[in-house]
């Protein structure tokens, strides 16, 4: 089994037209340690201006999060994360996922309501409400003789082929149906559309937030979506295969190029930085990511 060691750096900066005060934010930025998948060797986060209060907690999906409060007026907010992470390659597993018609029986046999239970990833979630257009699109990939895993791969490939990666076409608040009609967008849009398509077929699917390797291996093209945090899809393919991860933005399985930060039902569960503040006028945000494999 191969393992790749990475040094990560992330900068998220915000500037406000008028000084902000009374700001409270929650961050989910640090990569996870996952058994037989990846290990967080070391990591740190710095915040400027320095918070007046700071606390740490673990959310429902078992992700470490940090809450911080800024009382004094400030015109900028600067967040920097650095981490070293080891990512292990995953063995190629045979497809033992059930046919689509047999998947509901396997789901009903799962009694657990733990964070990784497929039951949490079947219905609507805060940002994802079923849309007939996307359901019709999904049915074209759901041939009766295909397994759940084969359907997931078919949808991943079709979305990658039909959609154009265009960072200027959408914003963080663009809805999946808007992105679907445009057939353009970024990794968040590709991921949300694929999740909705899978759920419309009764296949549990969720959102993965993380980082993507920015330096391609020799002879390989640079992967799209590597300038900022990345997103891809997690699919439950039956009790035997369990959860698998596919990246529709690049039409590849998640591998050693993909570093996991958080799992959720949709983007709302894994927002890197979210909060409220007292201010007026507009704000500007910048984000820079560097993912460097070590020799």
Automatic annotation (TrEMBL):
Superkingdom of the source? Bacteria
Residues in a coiled coil are none
Its protein name is Transglutaminase family protein
Which Pfam families does its entry note? Bact_transglu_N, Transglut_core
Q: Which organism is it from?
A: Rhizobium aouanii
Segments spanning the bilayer are none
Q: Which InterPro entries match?
A: Bac_transglu_N, Papain-like_cys_pep_sf, Transglutaminase-like
Q: Which residues form the Transglutaminase-like domain?
A: 179-250
